[in-house]
Fold these 2 entries.
Entry 1:
Amino acid sequence: MKYIYELHKTMLERNLILVYEGEFTQEITKSVLAMAERNMDSMGEESSIKRKVFNVMVECLQNIVKHSEDLHAKKENKPTAIFMIGKQEASYIITSGNPIKNEEVPKLRGKLEQINGLDKDGLKQLYKDIIKNTNLSEKGGAGLGFVDMARKSGQKLEFDFQEIDSNYSFFSLKTTIVKE
Amino acid sequence: MQILHLEGTEDTPKIILDKNNGIFEISGRSLPEDSAEFYQPVLDWIDEYKEEPKNATEFVFKLEYFNTASSKLILDILSNLEDIEGVTIIWYYHEDDEDMQEAGEEFSELVELPFEFKTY
């Protein structure tokens, strides 16, 4: 039973106010959003910060939903993922982790590096280019999620890939929303 | 012409498209699971309205939040409205919501339609 206490301590140490591990669906997304909103409301969080946190959460959660549907459609095992929100003194930290195919890593890394290489105006231009010239993917994604997360947070997106086995890597993503 | 009326939910906006009463409004939250499917009736309605529009159409967006997949469909709606004479977009944003204001400004740069900005 020791793991319960260990997990509890880890959550406290890292100031995690919400952790979800499991399957990701639109219904789960709505529940997680509702919990996080209630949590921020009860802490009396400023509405501008709440909106930014909500915004980044939605893109992050829906990215995972779309991606796991895609993996599942290819008759893979139903993948699970993790989503967490941490609250520090002066910021919120939204993190997620999900398995992706190894062959997707270079493209995803390239996209995130491109986004991190842009300033505010560059991100705005990229957003406009994508929205004008790209059709929705069959999964319903606009390809704008990461760009939007970078814009709304005003911070670089931190990411990491850890190889799970010869087929999969674990993709971790961290977005920080600084309170003004 | 038929009225399109959808009540808002926690992840979809309220929509009223009512030619007779001159109400054209999308408001609330938009983060549907499938934004293309959700907004298809709106695009279809505008296609029909296009045939015989009113002299002036004030199309209101009063969104509290929309996700990126919805933003693509909002642009499709705006592009569809470009074909109609006398359309004005009324873009509402909460007075302390700079991101929603900026989003409206960006849409106004992407289409050839007059935008009026209002706060609530």
Entry 2:
Amino acid sequence: MKTLLSGNEAIARGAYEAGVTVATAYPGTPSTEIVETIAQYDEIYSEWAPNEKVALEVGIGASIAGARVLVAMKHVGVNVAADPLLTFSYTGVNGGLVLVSAEDPGMHSSQNEQDNRYYAKFAKIPMLEPSDSQEAKDMVKMAFAMSETFDTPVMIRTTTRIAHSQTPVELEERQEVGIKEYVKDPKKYVMIPAYGRMRHRFVEERRLRLEKESEASPWNRIEWGDRSIGIITSGINYQYVKEVLGHASILKIGMVNPLPKQMIIDFVSRVDKVYVVEDLEPFIEEQVKSWGLKVTGKEIFPRTGEFSPELIAEKILGSAAVKEAAAAVSEDIPVRPPVLCPGCPHRGMYYVINKLKLKVTGDIGCYTLGALPPLEAMDSCICMGASIGTALGMEKARGEEFSRNLVAVIGDSTFMHSGITGLLDVVYNKGTTTTIILDNRTTAMTGHQDHPGTGYTVKKEETVEVDLAQLVKALGIRRVVEVDPYDLEKVEAVLKKETRAAEPSVIIAKRSCALLDKSSRPAMVIDQDKCTGCKRCMKLGCPAIALDGERVSINYTQCNGCELCTQVCRFDAIEKAGEQ
Amino acid sequence: MKPVDILIVGVGGQGTVLASKILAQVGLDMDVTVKVSEIHGMSQRGGSVVTQVRFGQEVHSPIIQKGHANVILAFEKLEALRWMSYLAADGQMIVNDQELDPMPVIIGAAEYPEGIIDKLQDALNNVTVVNALQLAEKAGNIKAVNVVLLGVLAKELDVPEKVWLKAIEKTVPPKFVEVNKRAFQLGFREAV
């Protein structure tokens, strides 16, 4: 029987069916649901690692010890894990290891749109790219066999539209493959230069074998159609091409590294005009052109953003091929950017930061939304964990005085991920930076995953709850203050005091994410007789507060009753519904 | 059942994802090929969200092209206007008569367009306007707006009512099944 699975769920199912016994990840859109789903299988040890580098290292250990392992992360997570990855390519595996890189063309929920196909080429390891959930599941299973046959980690690349689209999948039984024997083998697993040199020669020899494998791979196939037009494509774009150019001849590439060179040469020679349809970088196109073949790619297709069926139709067939809509939108429609939720504990902190006119080095999480109007409380945001190092760099460039009006803002999960080392640098190199840890007790943006500070594992088992205050004290921070971000007066007092201090300090703003806080509070209402229309409450950037002409009101369907607006109102005009 | 492409649009947090889950379950029970595409992560925090559901014998792309949607189920008026160009010439727009101000409107950087329902009715042949919030309140939970709207959608699709109710049972947590069934039936029977 077929069942509907997202690409992520299908990858999880593939891991289960392939006999995987260890799975590890750090949450990141669009990869999160992979290990979240695997965690439901009792047969598989699963974990949220503190970051992607640790996740891959745990995976490497499990592989060397003989288990089949799946490791999952978003595209930028592979940057964090790149150090072990590039050398793990040398050692190869014992039990098979599959690394899923979930990428985000169009940046639905990411800070960049890097193309990780280059990582596979860089590490000289195979990469498979599914076009739907069925392929995702089947490829995972085959990737484990390939990993063990070729003694290599195997990457699987998905994009948002594969990861988060649900398509039919045929389920199969799990195959128990057991654990392989563990034998100490330093020449394979201890990468000192003498052994590394030997393994590098192995990697080059393996690369040649993989090139042959790609020519024979069932994932690379030609669907002959109209010979006047040939399309080379992979991933979700294969589906788009089938939708709008179903008549064309299509070379569908499922094994994107290494490419099936001879198959591509044959294909190009047998069709009149060839297009390479690939998101982001000309990964396939440049290689094909380097073989002296004539194809069209980035001359007509963008390197930025996500493709769509109509974009492909328009670029290849012209705008006449795009169907007329029932009606076009003629006016400017206000954009609807994401916002901090009503009742979000981050809102109060940003309100006070703005009141004190502080500069903010930001980080990656829900609180990044504080960068948008009306809060606009962020000066920089680069990658996971960057806020603290960036703040220290600013202080070292412009002097301590500058640091008196500067804070680093980072979430609890992000701090565990890669903020600790930044803070260590602040202490060690005599910085005076103030770091605010927005501790909402979860990894919120990706959908509320546990982390070392929550006291629960991915399987919801109780575990040690890392104490943030004790942790930062152990790093050498002497000024550590905990504060409830709903208490604006206290937050302001603490912020003033700690930014003034000529030594490093950490403020832990502790309150559960509003979406996890199940206590029901009455919505607030504005007493229109008392309201002067000063709009001070609107500086909170709360989506529940609406402006209707000059009249300010609260949308009861949105309000979560956090009472921040009551605290900022100078006219006592905002009260709980039912109390007026 | 006939092939159909449905776009569900709304504001993050309105429950579009649950609506698409129920809808997908209906497709599975009707034995058609189903593909669903949604976006998780940032946009779910109060942003403009879209979920695409395609039913048919052979479906390739999980996303719907502009001008191809048979039905747009809009949870909010402004989102109906934003996604209108995805509707096919003979398509059906079902719009919840609810206004949720986006942040640029709240802070006065943009204006919420006036008379959206009139504009939709002028531009499109088939528009159904629903006060889903009122019906959800009547059902007993303002969060059931999504399932009220599914009830309205159900009238457009060639699927027996019992298949819908079964899909709700399979998809919704047990303690919310009854309120959601009530919400569905209010949308199915009472909405204009």
